[in-house]
Amino acid sequence: MSDSDWHVDSNGEAANFKDILRVTVILTGNENFGIARFLLNQWTESRRFGIQFGYVCLQHGIMTDALQSAGADVTVCHGVVPQLSRLWPVLAWMLWFAPFGGFWSTLSKVIHELRAIAPDVVYTQNLPGHLLGGLAGRRLHLGTMGQIHGSLNEKRMLGLTRRMVSVLLYALFARGIAISNYVRQTLWGPARRKTEVVYNSVDVRAIQDAAPRASKVPGRLVMVGRLVPLKKFETAIEAVLILTRQGVSCSLDIIGGPVDVSNGYFMRLKRLVEESGLKDRVSFWGVLSPPYLHVASAEVFISCATIEGFGYAVVEAMACGTPVVVADAGAPAEYVVDGCSGLQFRSDDPSSLARRLKGLLGNSDQRVRIAAAAREQVEKLFPPDQHMAGIRRTAEAVAARTRLWNRTQPRTQGESIQS
């Protein structure tokens, strides 16, 4: 069935679908930030596209609560999740796989739940889920598709880590879905060929309703995101210092957290602001939910991250009608067309960022033109219907492939639960 064959009736329910697809999503239960938004957006739109989502969470956590509050069918299997550490990531995985580390007992619980549910497709969202869902799917002859939210580090261990993870992903699921071309390109070899790109969805109308015709504050720059080193807020702070020395009137509002002493990165940023004499120009606002009105009031939005898998904050700023300036690396660089729907600067270069900001702040006509083009770009690339059409299409292909395979293979020890 093609996308054009899909029809939504007056009650918002799916109509004219040949089959309702039963898709079980494997989660840790503690997903948050962008992945949590992604999952809730999917759940909200799923019935219109004939997808019956159910969720198996390894543990009870904030994602479990959010899905249950939204009315989703959630099962908690009380398994063990690897306790990942930035300092010893390999050790954390080794401990999880150890005889008493919890992996094998958790896998047994996931198999038990999937056997009882008997879904058409198993849908995984992160590496623990890929491992558990992929192995359980193989055991039960269920088709598995894996969502890839983040990029692989192409330099770690001379690229060996990237290759190992890519081979693992290739073996674990029938089809992969990457949230951007950038993420897909970081996969290696056959895993990349097995993976298609389906952009995340953004409800442009809801964002615009939340920030209707906000008045622009002259010289206001804004950034939104978790205060973690990967976001590279220091690049923007250093650019503001350059602009200040050049006599450009501007201020930078940083929205995100945590903004307390427990966050070493925040404390470093705070010291940088103080040592640079920018306390009256750079402000930390903490978490604003939603931040749309504040973003819409800024003249420019900045993103300095260079390995951003998607960049919700960038897309939402574009939807708010605020021109964006982004690093020339990562996913934002593929949908922010330099000079048209935004501007790009050389990654990790405060001087390059300062030049782009200075030019944009001094040209109101360019800001208006870029904002209009950005809104059009967002409406074209990220509508919820387009995202769900891609998910439905991939799930149908996986389910059909699994049914065909099961019909042509002999039953083995009664493990297959597909008819």
Comma- or semicolon-separated keywords:
alpha/beta, 17 helices, about 45% helix, about 425 residues, 15 strands
Ends apart, CA distance between termini: 22 Å
Based on DSSP secondary structure assignment, what is the total number of beta strands?
15
State the helicity in percent bands: 40-55%
The class by helix and strand makeup works out as alpha/beta
Largest sheet: 7 strands, parallel
Give the low-pLDDT segments: 1-15
What oligomeric arrangement do these chains adopt? single chain
Q: Report the β-strand fraction as a percent range.
A: 15-25%
Q: Could you tell me the mean pLDDT?
A: 91
Please compute the radius of gyration using only Cα atoms: 23 Å
- How many separate helices? 17
Q: Please state the overall shape, judged from the principal axes of the Cα atoms.
A: globular
**Strand neighbour order, sheet with most strands:** 5-4-3-6-7-8-9
Protein described:
Helix 13 crosses helix 16. The chain is built from 17 helices and 15 strands. The chain has 419 residues and is an alpha/beta fold. Helix 13 links the parallel strand 13 and strand 14. The chain is globular and about 75 Å long.
Quick summary:
The protein is of the alpha/beta class. A seven-stranded parallel β-sheet has the order 5-4-3-6-7-8-9, sandwiched between helices. Strands 12-11-10-13-14-15 form a six-stranded parallel β-sheet, sandwiched between helices. Strands 1-2 form a two-stranded antiparallel sheet.
